[in-house]
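Title: Comparing notes on inverse folding

I've been comparing how different people in this forum approach sequence design from structure. To keep things fair, I'm posting one structure and asking everyone to reply with a full sequence. Here's the target:
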């Protein structure tokens, strides 16, 4: 494991174990995660989410970090349990929001849960945007550009097809980015985007 990865305190471990139990229990009612991943919730979901902690920008009093399409709370709920106080879990499914509220309550976590679609989030309101297993990189940039504040960043964990997604996105956007290798899978990476602009918009601005 990467030496830069933050260690879990006993309190955080306890809360994550409670989270795991809730996830397994609620999975019987709602399709929260892929069934096969329940065999190893810690690595497939908790550690995979927690590795983003050191990549987040400093906390901003007025502009939160949005976890769009939060689903079962990955990565945002894990990062909030670890101590981030500026995270908003954005989820369009009311059933999944009920689950997230239950996790928040049982773990006594300081996090905001918003039953909302990413397209409805306020313009230029986020210091950072995260999304895990939501849509393609191009799709995420289309969602993120309108709601990201100036100097905001996007942090997107991506799986085995991350290179193809990046190449496809570069045909549509000018992107200032860096890639960080995932500690949970050699085939996965985390794409950090510091600036992105649609190519058509860039051409218009140059005229």
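Reply #1:
Here's my take.
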């Amino acid at each position: 494991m990467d030496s830069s990865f933050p260690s879990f305190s006993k309190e955080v471990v306890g809360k994550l174990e409670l989270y795991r139990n809730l996830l397994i229990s609620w999975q019987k009612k709602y399709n929260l995660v892929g069934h096969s991943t329940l065999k190893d919730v810690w690595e497939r979901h908790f550690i995979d989410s927690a590795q983003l902690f050191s990549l987040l920008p400093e906390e901003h009093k007025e502009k939160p970090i949005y976890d769009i399409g939060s689903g079962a709370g990955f990565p945002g709920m894990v990062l909030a349990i670890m101590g981030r106080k500026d995270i908003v879990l954005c989820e369009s499914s009311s059933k999944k929001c009920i689950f997230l509220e239950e996790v928040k309550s049982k773990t006594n976590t300081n996090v905001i849960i918003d039953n909302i679609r990413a397209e409805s989030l306020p313009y230029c309101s986020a210091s950072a945007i995260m999304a895990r297993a939501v849509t393609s990189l191009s799709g995420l940039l289309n969602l993120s550009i309108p709601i990201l504040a100036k100097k905001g960043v996007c942090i997107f964990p991506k799986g085995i097809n991350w290179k193809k997604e990046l190449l496809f996105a570069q045909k549509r956007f000018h992107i200032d980015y860096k890639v960080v290798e995932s500690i949970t899978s050699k085939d996965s990476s985390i794409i950090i985007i510091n600036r992105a602009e649609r190519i058509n918009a860039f051409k218009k601005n140059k005229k």
